[in-house]
Amino acid sequence: MEIDIAPQFGAELKDRFKPVNAWVSNGIAWLDDIQQFYRERSTIEKEYAGKLSALAKKYFEKKARKSSSLSVGDTPTVTPGSLESASMTTWGVQLTTLESRAAEHDQFAGQLIANLADPLKNLAARYEELRKYHVEYAGKLEKERDSTYGDLRKMKGKYDNVCQEVENRRKKIDGSFDHGKQKARNAFEQQQLEMRNVKNTYVITINVTNKQKAMYYHEYVPELLESLQDLSETRVAKLNSIWSLAAQIETQTLSRSMDYLKHLSSEIPRNNPLLDSMMFVRHNAGAWQDPADFQFEPSPVWLDDGNVATDDAAKVFLRNVLTKSKGQLGEYRRELDKKRREVENAKKIRQSIRDGKDKRDEVEVVRALFALQESMHEVERQKVTAEVEVSTITSVVGDVSIGASQHNFKSQTFKIPTNCDLCGERIWGLSAKGFDCRDCGYTCHSKCEMKVPADCPGEQTKEEKKKLKTERQDAAHAAHSVNGTPSDSQSELPRISRSDTINSMNTLSSGYSATAHRSISGGMSPTEENPPEKANKVAPPPVAARRNRIVAPPPAQYIKDDGGDLASSSGLPKSTEQKGKMLYAYQQNGEGELTVPEGRDVSVLEPDDGSGWIKIRAGSKEGLVPAAYVEILSLTPPPSNRPGSTYSASSVSLSGSISAPGKKKGPAVAPKRGAKKLKYVEALYDYKAQSDAEHSMAEGERFVLINMEAGDGWADVEKGGLVKSVPANYLQEI
Ligand SMILES: [Zn+2]
Ligand SMILES: [Zn+2]
Known about the structure:
There is one protein chain. It contains twelve helices and 15 strands. The radius of gyration is 60 Å and the shape is rod-shaped. A five-stranded antiparallel sheet has the order 9-8-7-6-10. A five-stranded antiparallel sheet has the order 14-13-12-11-15, with no helix packed on it. A three-stranded antiparallel sheet has the order 1-4-5, with no helix packed on it. By secondary structure, it is an alpha+beta fold. Residues 407-408, 437, 439-440, 442, 456 line the site of one zinc ion.
């Protein structure tokens, strides 16, 4: 770089060697600071490189551990090769990029030392060496100058001495006589000659010295100063080139890093989201088989087929179900269309958001979409259920809803006691919920609704309604008397259902309880009071092929034999549950207990074993309640016919307080029994094991019951520490 000023140390600083030397010396020493700076920078870069490299390594290892699972899932059906998913590959590029960046920093750290710090150190040493030459030379010049001055001083002394000698000789002339005087005069003359030579020498020396002095101050020292100036400027120029090199090295480092990142940026878009999905599908697609359809399974105690019963009573029920389901179907279809449109709209909004045309939050929209789809799904399930109900019924009995005169039922909670026109019983208290026909005034229990024939005579006057009521009540009661006393309910329809509706878990879309239905329309089924008791040495029921049985063993042969033999200790078959009713509300007080409201119908699962507690089921829940809180409903005709029933023990003293309304406080409760009791079963018949998976049984032999419903009519029991299967219908629970 050319500049106007051209400073010259020699011309402008004259003999100021010392300060100039000191300044130049400081400049050289400063180079040490700069090389130290590069060394420290190098340390930082090296450290950073190490950290980046360790980070890359750590995440390479993590990737290696998870790559397979992330690429092909945890349970691929095809053995995964060494391939990894596109996302894994793309992630690998990030890590490789990081590694390269780490290597760049490491290389940069090395260059800072090799190309900058070390050269600077060498330069500083060499410059310092040169500077010292200058110092030595300056000393030499100074010595020369002083020596010249010394010579002059000596010359002057010599001259003075010579002059003194001349004077001495002149004085000697004055003090001498005769021929001595001439001799002295000669000596004086001689001395004067000598004196003039010395004087001339002195004068010459003065001139020489002055010239040397001038040379020292105007030539030698300025030249030396200029050399020092040059040294300093050379140092600065060299420093500039080092700095430039430093900038260049760092720029190259950054530029290579930029290239890595550019490459990375170009790799990311290649990770098409479809690629991961494709890989996963390829490794997880397996042979698919629909789960087998459910088949009708006959009861272990009653042989039946899977055909829909179509007797008259069943048809009434089917007609009512069909009418309800058909009515709901239209509603479901309209509702489904509406929901579907809502879902489509939400999907469109989501697409608009993805296309950047809508500013709403996609997550919020997806959340809303989920809610809409869920509610659509609900309706769809209801629609499908109703459709299948309709098609099942019409395929068997045709569209019996056509021409039916359905009652215009309205749900009611009867505040004033009235009688059910179907069963004749009170609609009151715990079963106060029911229906009445807006047109003809027909009233019925909720549980009776679906059994009411579709024979509404249409709108009636008050008088006509009154008349109809009387007729209907007479008919209802006549049905009772025909069938004998209510307690002897061999085929009495309504009574049987009293405890079943609440416990039912299986309902049609119409809300009808299937459990209640079975005991009514299944006219062929044995009543609860007449279980297939063990006949006198009748052959046991046949046992079907294990697991694949289609037809249940026919217990009919046992029930053909007219009952009356209830005294038999074999008691009740498993399918018959002892029913009961809560006399008082019971609040759960400990583990295994159950909270049950007063009046609730319950099933007794385990009788009172003397602890004062019984195990019951109320709805879908099972648990213990105090035995004294439960009224055991008599199952059988006169107890005298049925001695030894373990169920009757706790009911005797309490019967009679059955339907007292109002809140009552239960009696004090005895401490609950401890450990859960084991269930036992007793073999009703001999059975010979057909395979290793089965136990042989002798009639009357007892086992610990593991599972009464192991599947396909088989039960799992334990004998001698081994759990094996036996036919469930050969067992009774004890
Ligand atoms: Zn009606
Ligand atoms: Zn009724």
